[in-house]
Write a structure and sequence with these properties.
4-stranded mixed sheet, alpha/beta, 4-stranded antiparallel sheet
């Protein structure tokens, strides 16, 4: 056994154990080892990222689960890694180059990529170092990066196989285009922002000269690419016009009026301009009606030749010019202020532009169909179950996936254009071949187009979600199906992630896994909520309301933060709120968890000072026949909490597990059992043999409870419990609590009746203590205590607990009697209290100054009545009762009820003194 410092130093303790675990490879599992396999691959954070509260929450949940499964005897792999974050890295590098007066094209692709890898080596490990601070029990030796050699080969293989199956194709479709980064972006890379804009109403003249139709838009510059105006088929106002044409201003073109169910006839004028090349809904209308697709904008955000006299203008400059021209032509009807949501590029920070572009796509429907079939068998299983519907809906209403990005940092698309077929240069019509390497590509090209064929690899890279979609199996060695890790740990056990990427990541992993492994990549999907700020708002960069977890870790420790986050979870999938004082960088919630850590520290120090230098193993198991009432109660509680915690950890009820362990450790162990055991652990200078035997029993029970408590709390507070467990057990530092077996459940110790009875005993002791405080008794002053109840079983436990009552209430005598016995021996002056079916009497005549006590009670009554008057007045005021927030009114009512109860109690006690 080792000594513990008087105070807990979380930062030093945590750093020491993080290093020890990693140096010894504590979490580096052997695929050949025994134990049921359990695997988790962590959601790979962007290599550009820095730790935020979402990472801390996700990590706390994942690590709690995997640490428990390790303790439960499973062969656990928790695999870490990072994502190469194509757009984010490229944005950083291009910003650096801009400051140097250069562009990536000045460097060339090879030099640019060399610079990117240098940046990754120098700065890309920041998020990993920060994750280490959280005590992640991952296998850092197996750490992966989506651009490492093995994963890059897996990406090539996946692309080639999907192309061979006809599921990857090249075509021209509408995509989200970021003019700032010059690339297509995924929906997840688009941030919806509310902006103050305008809604412009203008007229399109009928070609017949007999009137006009009025349309409205937030993007007037796109009208130059209109190819129709649509109305609802059931709209009688326009039924006679369907099939006629309109003159599109400034273009010299006539466009048809079409009928389409997409149009809501109650919205606006019921007429909708249709620009298939610049709006996804219009694109669908255009497909249904065979409309032309006219692109009026270049990819840099300027207007092209199709825009006529507006060519060369920036899109926002063109917007103003088009509106002015419409007004000049007498076609502008009105302009309304309009607050609406506009999609912005998360990286480029500019509004995205829906644009027609020739890109690579995945035909997702066949992949999604396989996932839907599996989901019908609850494969995977969603926790909570309600997210299953969200996942199913994504898979049911699914569009083809644009996977190409116009960037250099990323997985270059394994396709080669046969440029010799189009005059030595690339065009949208240049034929191509797909291959695993350039040699194979050239061989294919020569076979198809002759020996003189020349090829050039596609400049584009793949969407990062393509590589991360392979994450659960590419990290385990796929496409080598015989890889030891793949054989042992695939499919993985649990995916822990946020609800916001169910489609963007979860569904893509299941689609890819179904295509390449024939199995879903994980058995369970545990969906957690968000960490909201002190005002219950979603944290975001734009709102500037994030909370830096590293600040809280430095102040309170990693374990305190982790425990606070998990304990706040009220149910699987629920958002949590974290209080935070932004002026002081403090959190009362995390501070409470730090106080809990201190409580555990002090409880363990108490044990060390009272176990006589012996370890739990040396002390051995207590003799059941020697157990006292408190021993049997705490051992029943220990077994109960063991049973409940296993069930909660196993079913992802992590918040409930943390709350249950907190109550057990703080209340049952620290507040009660330690107090009850003090007199037995210190029997005096010349103890009798009976007292020494009882001391040993108390030591054995205390050692067992403390050491098992450390183990059960370990998944939640790993560093603290590792330190405390070593101090009690005396195990060498290379023998880790993290790798111990879960304590065996002592079924024989479980005793429902005893736990219920002991709870009543504790309640009785609390009443006595409260009465002592009311009487103003000094701590050293002893008084007789009388318990009155008509329940024989309650009388029995009070009589058995006489020694405990005497020790914890400073009673000089304890009498337990029936109501009849109490009536036969009345007490002249006593304070009374009630707990359930128990009446507690504290005779005080001759022990306290009755006049002084009477004066205090009268003051208490006056104070309560004043509070009652004020609260009742507020509630009777209509301005407060009807207009104040409901929670404020409810709080006022609760305070009134409490004040009335306090006044009634004080009056009763005052009457008892007469």
């Amino acid at each position: 056994m080792s000594d513990l410092a008087k105070t807990y130093d979380p930062v030093g303790t945590e750093a020491r154990w993080q290093k020890a675990w990693e140096d010894e490879g504590a979490f580096h599992p052997d695929p050949a080892a025994e134990g049921e396999p359990f695997a988790v691959v962590i959601p790979p954070p962007n290599v550009t990222g820095s730790l935020h509260m979402g990472h801390a929450f996700n990590t706390a949940l994942i690590d709690t689960i995997v640490r428990y499964q390790r303790l439960a005897g499973k062969n656990v792999l928790c695999l870490p890694g990072t994502d190469h974050a194509s757009i984010a890295v490229q944005t950083i590098l291009e910003k650096q180059l801009k400051e140097e007066g250069k562009t990536r094209h000045d460097l060339g692709r090879e030099a640019f990529l060399e610079r990117a890898w240098t940046w990754k080596a120098d700065s890309g490990g920041r998020i990993v170092d920060q994750l280490r601070r959280l005590g992640y029990s991952v296998d850092w030796k197996r750490q992966r990066f989506t651009l490492d050699e093995g994963l890059s080969e897996a990406v090539k293989e996946a692309f080639v196989r999907l192309h061979e199956q006809g599921l990857i194709y090249r075509g021209e479709y509408l995509v989200n285009w970021c003019p700032a980064s010059g690339s297509a972006v995924s929906d997840l890379e688009v941030e919806m922002k509310e902006v103050d804009g305008h809604l412009w109403h203008f007229r399109y003249p009928l070609s017949s000269g007999e009137g006009h139709l009025e349309v409205a838009t937030t993007r007037p510059e796109t009208m130059l690419g209109d190819t129709a105006v649509a109305v609802n088929p059931s709209d009688e106002r326009y039924a006679h016009l369907v099939g006629q044409t309109l003159d599109l201003p400034f273009t010299g073109r006539q466009i048809p009026i079409v009928a389409d169910d997409h149009v809501e006839k109650e919205f606006g004028t019921g007429c909708v301009k249709v620009t298939p090349a610049h709006d996804p809904n219009d694109f669908a209308i255009g497909q249904r009606h065979g409309l032309a697709q006219i692109t009026v904008m270049r990819k840099n955000g300027t207007m092209n030749a199709e825009a006529g006299r507006f060519e060369g203008m920036d899109r926002f400059e063109a917007r103003k010019a088009v509106v002015a021209a419409l007004d000049q032509e007498g076609l502008l009807v009105k302009v309304e202020d309009y607050r609406h949501t506009v999609p912005h590029s998360d990286r480029g920070k500019v509004p995205v532009e829906p644009l027609l572009s020739t890109q690579w796509f995945v035909n997702t429907e066949p992949l999604a169909a396989r996932c839907r079939e599996a989901l019908a068998k609850q494969d995977p299983r969603f926790i909570p179950e309600r997210w299953e519907k969200v996942y199913r809906d994504w898979l049911t209403d699914i569009r083809d996936w644009c996977i190409s990005r116009q960037l250099w940092w990323g997985h270059r698309i394994p396709a080669w254009f046969v440029i010799s077929e189009t005059g030595g240069r690339y065009t949208d019509t240049t034929p191509y071949v797909v291959a695993r390497n350039e040699a194979d590509a050239l061989a294919q090209a020569q076979e198809k187009f002759g020996a003189s064929a020349q090829i050039e690899q596609d400049e584009d890279v793949l969407d990062t979600w393509f590589s991360s979609g392979l994450w659960p199996f590419s990290t385990l060695g796929w496409p080598d199906a015989n890889a030891a890790d793949f054989q042992r740990w695939y499919p993985t056990s649990t995916l822990i992630t946020g609800f916001d990427i169910i489609f963007f990541w979860v569904a893509r992993m299941t689609m890819m896994a179904g295509a390449f492994t024939g199995e879903m990549p994980f058995k369970d999907v545990y969906i957690h909520g968000l960490v909201r700020d002190e005002q219950n708002r979603k944290m975001s960069k734009s709102a500037g309301n994030g909370i830096d977890p590293l600040l809280l870790i430095e102040r309170y420790g990693t374990d305190a933060l982790r425990f606070a986050l998990v304990r706040e979870v009220a149910g699987a999938g629920q958002d949590i709120r974290l209080d935070y004082d932004r002026k002081k960088d403090t959190s009362a919630t995390v501070e409470a968890s730090r106080n809990f850590a201190n409580k555990l520290w002090n409880a363990t120090r108490f044990a060390l000072m009272n176990l006589g230098g012996a370890t739990p193993a040396q002390l051995g198991e207590p003799d059941p026949s020697a157990l006292q009432l408190a021993d049997r109660w705490i051992l029943s509680r220990l077994a109960r909490v063991n049973q409940e915690t296993v069930a909660r950890y196993s079913s992802y009820a992590l918040g409930e597990a943390s709350k249950g362990l907190y109550e057990f450790a703080w209340n049952d162990v620290c507040d009660w059992y330690l107090e009850l055991s003090k007199r037995r652990l210190n029997p005096g200078d010349s103890p009798a043999a009976e007292a020494l035997a009882d001391q040993l029993t108390a030591q054995q029970v205390l050692a067992k409870v403390i050491s098992q408590m450390h183990l059960m709390l370990h998944p939640l507070m790993p560093h603290l419990t590792e330190e405390l467990w070593h101090s009690v057990t005396g195990e060498p530092e290379t023998t880790f609590l993290a790798l111990q077996p879960w304590p065996v459940l002592d079924q024989a110790a479980l005793d429902d009746g005893l736990e219920a009875s002991f709870a009543e005993l504790i309640a009785a002791i609390r009443v006595v203590r409260n009465l002592r405080a009311v009487a103003g008794l000094k701590p050293s002053q002893s008084v007789p205590v009388r318990f009155v109840t008509g329940r024989p079983e309650l009388m029995a436990v009070l009589e058995q607990g006489t020694a405990e009552i005497t020790a914890l209430t400073r009673a000089d005598s304890v009498a337990v009697m029936t109501p009849a016995q109490a009536d036969a021996a009345p007490v002249a002056k006593a304070l009374a209290g009630v707990s359930g079916e128990l009446q507690v009497l504290l005779p005080i005549e001759g022990l306290v100054d009755l006049e002084a006590l009477q004066g205090r009670l009268e003051k208490d009554i006056a104070k309560a009545e004043k509070e009652i008057k004020g609260l009742a007045g507020r509630l009777s005021n209509p301005n407060f009762a009807d207009k104040a927030p409901p929670e404020v009114v409810a709080e006022c009512k609760a305070k009134l009820a409490e004040a009335e109860a306090q006044a009634a109690l004080a009056r009763t006690r005052l009457a008892d003194l007469d």
